[in-house]
UniProtKB/TrEMBL annotation:
One of its GO terms (molecular function) is protein kinase activity. Gene3D superfamilies: Transferase(Phosphotransferase) domain 1. Residues 53-412 form the Protein kinase domain. InterPro entries: Kinase-like_dom_sf, Pkinase_fungal, Prot_kinase_dom, Tyr_kinase_AS. It comes from Chlamydomonas leiostraca. Pfam families: Pkinase_fungal (PF17667). This is Protein kinase domain-containing protein.
Length: 415
């Protein structure tokens, strides 16, 4: 089977809806485009059908596809979470056309689609000092099809039987929820997190444990807190507070450890139980070593990437890997929250086109493109002033975190 016909198709049943977006291949760029287009359809579907709790999406290309389970997060809103099956071969349904292939996948159970690998289902023990902890999976948060090949799970950790190895009774077994990330490429990410923890950087995950899966020896690490993403229903104050918190974190990371995140985006910011924003997903993060040479690889999501890393025009390496670029991504994140995702700066575009759209919207057509779509009028003054830092009189790659943070605090909404 060569694969289904190109284009998008929609399959409807009385209880099942699936949207399929097919690309020539599932490279990182095509994958992000297809995922963004399917997510846009799902958001519209949840708005039109407030009673719908879940639906399927499929992205496919070349000889592979991935099934996505979209579940409504908050009743009455279009906010959803995504569970991913991981990459599946078209060959598993050889002889089917595109619609039959999709139908056969939708008749499978969640476990058959691979949402929870067999290795994770029973859980496994972890030795921490004198205490043995049991790590039990709850759900797949992300199954990554990019080059890292990593998977992210929410897990429940509890002290085994409440007894230490020496037999001392510990009372009621302590327990907590956390995030486990496993995959071949997680070593470097764990190293970065360990370095940030040792420097006591605020607003980054705590690296609780790192090791190897008992059966496959796949490397993994466990971090806290689990956290919750901001939704479009969050208040203006919560959105701008999270923006300020992450700006503080980025500033400390760079000043103390010379680390840049390279993937600042709404999906990589969560809020802990105390309301503190936490920056997550450091798989692209790099420590900027003095005198080292770095390739100007874009990486990250085009919709939130700074123009200096998107544009195909020549730029000095210092601009491509600057703290100002991290803060610029944070501005686009705030705009995304305030406009409830209605601005599309990179879902179906190459990097230069996304750069041109951002420059056009933020520099020349700000009121028509951004403020006209803002659903949080209390954030307009802050967004306007932050925009001015980066775009007036000319586009700047030298914005300082103190100036960014000062704007957030000066224009913080009262509620």
């Amino acid at each position: 089977m060569l694969g289904p016909p190109m284009g998008a198709c929609q399959v409807l049943w009385s209880t099942i809806v699936a949207v399929c977006e097919l690309k020539p291949s599932l490279t990182s760029t095509y994958y992000q485009e297809a995922l963004g287009q399917v997510a846009d359809c799902m958001q519209a579907l949840f708005q039109l059908q407030p009673q719908r709790v879940w639906c399927y999406g499929v992205v496919g290309g070349g000889s592979s596809l991935e099934v996505l389970l979209f579940q409504r997060q908050v009743p009455g809103t279009a906010m959803f979470s995504i569970k991913r099956s991981g990459l599946l071969p078209f060959s598993c349904c050889a002889g089917s056309d595109g619609l039959e292939l999709l139908a056969s996948l939708l008749q499978a159970t969640h476990e058959q689609l691979g949402f929870m690998p067999a290795e994770m289902k029973p859980g496994f023990p972890v030795q921490k000092g004198d205490t043995v902890w049991q790590v039990e999976p709850e759900a797949v948060l992300q199954a990554d099809v990019r080059s890292t090949g990593s998977c992210v799970y929410s897990v429940h950790c509890h002290a085994h039987d409440g007894v230490s190895q020496q037999g001392t009774l510990l009372g009621a077994p302590p327990s907590f929820r956390a995030v486990l990330k496993g995959g071949v490429g997680t070593h470097d990410e764990a190293d970065i997190l360990q370095r940030l923890n040792e420097a006591d950087i605020p607003g980054v995950p705590d690296l609780w444990h790192r090791g190897h899966m008992p059966s496959s020896q796949t490397p993994y690490f466990i971090i806290t807190p689990l956290g919750s993403p901001l939704s479009f229903a969050s208040s203006s104050k919560e959105m701008l507070t999270a923006t300020r918190d992450v700006a503080v974190t980025l500033s400390h990371m760079h000043a103390s450890c010379q680390v840049l995140h390279y993937d600042v985006a709404p999906a990589n910011i969560v809020v802990d139980e105390q309301g503190q924003a936490v920056l997550i997903d450091f798989h692209l993060a790099k420590q900027q070593l003095q005198g080292a040479m770095y390739l100007p690889s874009p990486g990250g999501r085009a919709a939130f990437m700074p123009i200096s890393r998107l544009d195909d025009r020549p730029a000095p390496l210092c601009a491509l890997r600057s703290l100002s670029g991290e803060l610029e991504s944070l501005l686009y994140t705030l705009v995304y929250w305030a406009c409830e995702g209605t601005l599309h700066w990179g879902h179906a575009l190459g990097y230069p086109a996304a750069a041109a759209l951002k420059y056009d919207a933020m520099h020349r057509l700000f009121e028509d493109k951004v403020l006209a779509r803002c659903r949080k009028p209390e954030l307009v003054p802050a967004i306007t002033q932050l925009r001015n830092l980066f775009f007036f009189p000319d586009y700047s790659t030298r914005v300082q975190p103190d100036d960014f943070i000062a704007v957030c605090e000066q224009y913080m909404p009262k509620a």
